[in-house]
Structure formats: structure tokens, C-alpha cells
Design goal:
By secondary structure, this protein is an alpha/beta fold. It has 18 helices and 19 strands. Strands 4-3-2-5-6-8-1-9-18-16-15-10-12-13-19 form a 15-stranded mixed sheet, sandwiched between helices. α2 runs parallel beside α4.
Amino acid sequence: MDMTGMLETAAGWLWDNFLWLNVALIILLIFFERREPKTVWAWMLALYFLPAAGILLYLLVGQDLRRKRTFRLKGMEEEFAWAMKRQEELLGISGGGLLEGEAEGFAGLIRYNLEAARAVLTVDNSVNIITDGRELYADMIREMGSAKEYIHVQSYIIRPDEIFQEMEICLAKKCSEGVKVRLLADAIGSRGMRRSDFERLKDIGILAERFFPPRFGRLPVRLNYRNHRKITVIDGRVAYVGGFNFGREYMGLDEKLGFWRDTHLKIKGSAVLALNMRFIQDWNYAAKEDLFREKGLLRPQTACCQGESLIQIISSGPDSKWQNIRSNYLRLIHLSRDHLYIQTPYFIPDETILEALRTAALSGVKVRIMVPSIPDHPFVLWATRSYIGDMLEAGARCYLYRRGFLHSKCVMSDGLVYCCGTANMDIRSFQLNFEVNAVVYDRKSACRMEKLFEEDLKDCVELTAEEYRGRGVSIRVKEQFCRLLSPLL
């Protein structure tokens, strides 16, 4: 039998057995994969109503591959054991000196991040908040120009446009000077970068790798488990983390989305080493190397450790035992006494987060949620509006950002602490994507972040409970349909 005949036979068998394949997948979902019930129901609905497309969709994005077998990111257990043990001891001693003043009120949160996320508390950091893409890219290139040893760049999206071209020129120059440059991009997020682009980068000396690259040409075999982290580290003295990727839309040059409002943190201090370790773990997995042997990559730069901000770098993903960032958000909600500000492009919380937010609002905490009014994904927009409706009924105030697209991801509590980074307030960021956030315990920096939130209110329109209740039938149908699909978005 020739190849054409074999393909026709296989296609015929699949067509005749769609029902049984669906039944097998449903049994797999119910009995063998440990999922939340609503996720199981969402997949069952998809498989029932879309028998052909449902199977393909499940194979691409639905499999819950056992995490410990799929992701083996080498840690530095020995290197951090002593530091963690010492911090645990100090946190357990009243007046131990690790926490003073207002920070003592967050001892439980700090301990959780230390125990669950292995996030050592660093106490000597300075933080600069950057909200404009032009300013961020210019600052990065300036800092890269001063690099002496290495530059590490990790991003979910890298587009081969004029923005990255300018950075590529800078990186090529540093390579010619002997600086080691490593670049890690997610294969799906950076699908605009062709293999030839990566080969060109390697030809000029840049060590470039893709996270979960396609196996068959450009066909992705895994749409879930994407590396959504954005980290840049230069010589261990300065690091960047936040929501900005590399592309012209992040400078407000996209005609559809317009102005781009995002948040990135520029950090100096010991937290830089934690971000560099996070990059190294991801790089080791993608490049099949062991950069932990290069001890200089984790050498403290004492001259840069002159700030006073306390920071923990927390990360989570399919390789994490706990949903670290999601649980950190949950603790912040519970700890809030006066007000809680949330900026997120996608507001699709799980039931526990949603109930905590409603409880906070009903308890008198001033909960303020800011989301975009301009959608980049319509299904996510309507699912977000559905959950916003729940919060309005509980007494929260919700704002639609209208100047352009809001991509900032930040939770702020009482002007004392905030959590900012790459994770959205949605189920995908909580469970499926690799994310990284910085938790900053510092009144001055937290007040600055909240001031930016309040300034953004000038570019918002408030969505009231009365307006929401008056929405039309077609909108209600779209919201409910997209809410059913929210575990898949």
C-alpha cells in the first residue's frame, strides 16, 4: 500500500472512531488526570460538542503531562540550603532582626514564599518602576552597553522588527568585545522568529535558544506550558522583570491597540541574583547545559547592594509543586486591611481567588480592579467582564482603561507591599505558564506604584453595577459562554 492509501485508511479509521476516542479522552480526564472539576467539565463539553476539533485541541493544549517527568530544571539546593535555614530561624525568633517595622506584618507571607517558592528574602535592593516602552528599551540598551561579563535576555515574545533590530546591534557589539550574550525565547510567543533568525544570531556570537521548540518544521506540538517570563540580567548588577516583551506594539506602534500601558521593574541589589538563577534554570533546560558550574554567574555585586527595599523573587509553573504566585496573590488579599489595587489585562480568577476578593470587598476593604477596555482576545474580554460582574455585586469598583491597551500585572496592598511581574490574574498564569514575579516590601516603592494606578484612573471609565446589570441579552450570552471556557483560555 502506498503512502496515500495509508493516509486515507488512517483518516477513515479516525473518522469512524471519533465517538470512542472521545469516550477514551473523557475517561482519561475523569479518572487519571488530577484536574479541577470545572476544567474537566469544560473539556468534556468541548469534546462532546466538537468531536473532531475537540480531539485535536486536547492533543495540542489539553494534556496534563506529569510535571516531574516533563520538567527537570536543576536547582541549587546546596547553595541555598544555608541561606534558607538561617532565614527560617530568624523568622521564628521574635525580634530576630530580619524584619523590622511594617515588614513584620508580612512575616507569614515571607515565610510562605520562602518555604513553598524557595524565595530567599533580599534586603538591600533599589527599585525603579518603568511604565513606558521607549524608556525601558533605551535604559536596557544603555545598561547593556556597559556590560563587561555577560548579558542574559529571556522573553515570551521577540519580534524581528525595528525594536529588536536595534537591540541586536547592541548585543552583537558586546559579543565582539568578549561579553557572553545568552538569549532565550518562547517558541510559541516568538513564532515570528524563524530558524534563520536564530542562526543569524548565533553567527554573530549570540547564544540563542527556544523554549519548547517545534518538532516538525514550524508545527507546535505543545501549546500549553509556555514560558511567559521576561527577565534581563546584566553582569549580576542590574536586572529587569515585568510585562514588556520585545516588539513594536510595546512602544505603542500597533494601530489596533494604540498606546501600550505596562509595568517593568529595574532592580539593583541581591534580588538580581535570584532573577539570574531563574534565568539559568530555564536556560539549562532549553540549552541542555549546566551554567551552575560557572560560579561567577551568581557572584554578588556588593557595590550594587545599597538599597533598602525588601524583595522576594517568586516563580511558578508546571514544574512547581505549589501554585506559588497564585497563593501569594491569595495571601495579599487576606492581609489587606484598607485597600487592594489590581491591574491586569485578563481577570479570570479561580473560585478561591474570586471568593477571597469578594470577601475582602464585603468586609470593607476598598477593592479596585483595572482591566483594558480594548481587547486583544475577545473570548478573554467577555470572560473577564463576567467575573468583573461578580466583583461589582460585592461592592468592588472596576475601571476600564481606555487610553490604549493595559498590560500591567500588579497587585498592591495598603501602600506597603506589591507583587508585580509576568503573571496575569488568570487560571493560565496560575497553572499552565512559567511565570516570575517580584514581591516588594517597601512603603516608598509601594506608594509610588499605587500613585501610578491612581494616575491611570484619569484614562479610565468606571463600570458601575447599575450599568453592568443593564447589559443586553447578547452580551450576557457571550459572557456565560466564555466563562464556561475560562479554564481553557
